[in-house]
UniProtKB/TrEMBL annotation:
Organism listed in the record: Defluviicoccus vanus
Annotated protein name in UniProt: CsbD family protein
PANTHER family hit by this protein: UPF0337 PROTEIN YJBJ (PTHR34977)
Superkingdom field: Bacteria
Protein family membership: Belongs to the UPF0337 (CsbD) family.
InterPro entries linked to this entry: CsbD (IPR008462), UPF0337_stress_rsp (IPR050423), YjbJ_sf (IPR036629)
Span of domain CsbD-like: 4-55
Amino acid sequence: MDKDRIKGSFKQFSGSIKETAGKLVGDKKMEADGKAEKTEGEVQNAVGGIKDTVRETITKK
């Protein structure tokens, strides 16, 4: 598993927590920051998945 997938998953998780906390306390900035971090984590996770796929494809040849 690629490091980007691990880091991306963590960012998704922490972003979700920030987003939820922002909603609970009514802090729009915290909510927006959480959404942004969550999206960043999704992208990073996807990049890691692509790296894994490429690595597996090269290894099979």
